[in-house]
Structures are given as structure tokens and as C-alpha cells.
Amino acid sequence: MKIKRIDHFVITTTSPEKCVGFYSMLGFKPKVDGNRIELFALDFKINVHVIGKELFPHAQNVTPGSADLCFEVEGSLDEVISEITAAGLSIEHEPSIRTGTFGKMTSVYLRDPDGNLIELSQYSETETNPSEMG
Q1: Active site annotation includes 119
Q2: Per-residue pLDDT averaged across 4-21, rounded?
Q3: What is the DSSP letter of 79?
Q4: 94-109: pLDDT as tens digits
């Protein structure tokens, strides 16, 4: 077997409205159809389950706020930080060097309304372009 890519992952929320608002601010495009909430970004999506109303099948131990997610962003991190603070959100951890799939990256951290840790990162120009990796 060979994994090709991530198609989607699931997070659980206590407040669908706050969750959709937060991820929309990050640039995700929401699609809500009854109990089904999907947040699209480029070539993947996040499915959002509402606690107590999870779609079947679901994780064995459903818990809001248990995810630790990293998203690569476009533009400078200074611009990203400005957008975050303009939206009234707080940066939890200032820019720091981390290691991602393709090497060193600079990341900032914040939390979504359910307490999930959200890492927003940018690779340096000297790192390999992820689109060039096989």
C-alpha cells in the first residue's frame, strides 16, 4: 500500500457557528448541509462533527479540542499575524522555527474556539518546494 495524500480529517466542535467562523477567517470555504459541515481548502477538507451529533462512523473517543493541526500559509507570517490580531484573536506562541514535512519552517500558534491547537507555518525560500516533492 502507498498513501497518496490526506483527503480529509475530522474535528469535533461544541459550537458549529463559531467553528465555521474561525476556519472561514483562515480561508477555508464552508459547505453546510444540515448536520454535515465541511470546510474546504485547496485539495483537502475538514469535516466538522458536532459533539453529541457525530456522523457515523466516528472516532472511538470523540473530544472537542483534542486536535493539533498545522497548515502551511501563503504570504508573510507578519501579514498572517496582522490578520489574526485584526480578527480579535490571540497568538499563543510567537514565531518559532519548527520542522515540517519538507524541512525547516517558521510557525505561529493560536487556538480555535474549541481549544484545538492551530499552527500556521511558512517554509523558508531555501527549503524544497513541497509541490516539487514526489
Answers
A1: yes
A2: 96
A3: H
A4: 899 999 999 999 999 9
Cell of 46: 475538514
Q: What predicted TM-score, i.e. pTM, was given to this entire model?
A: 0.89
Domains parsed from the chain with CATH numbers: 8-132 (3.10.180.10)
Say if residues 106 and 77 touch (Cβ distance below 8 Å).
Answer: yes
Q: Can you list the alpha helix ranges (DSSP code H) found in 1-134?
A: 16-25, 77-86
End-to-end CA, the chain: 16
Q: What is the pLDDT of residue 134?
A: 46
pLDDT tens per residue across span 66-120: 999 999 999 899 999 999 999 999 999 889 999 999 999 999 999 999 999 999 9
Beta strands 44-50; 8-13: pairing state: parallel
Q: Within 13 Å and on the Cβ side, how many CA atoms surround 111?
A: 9
Choice among 79, 119, 125, 132 that is catalytic: 119
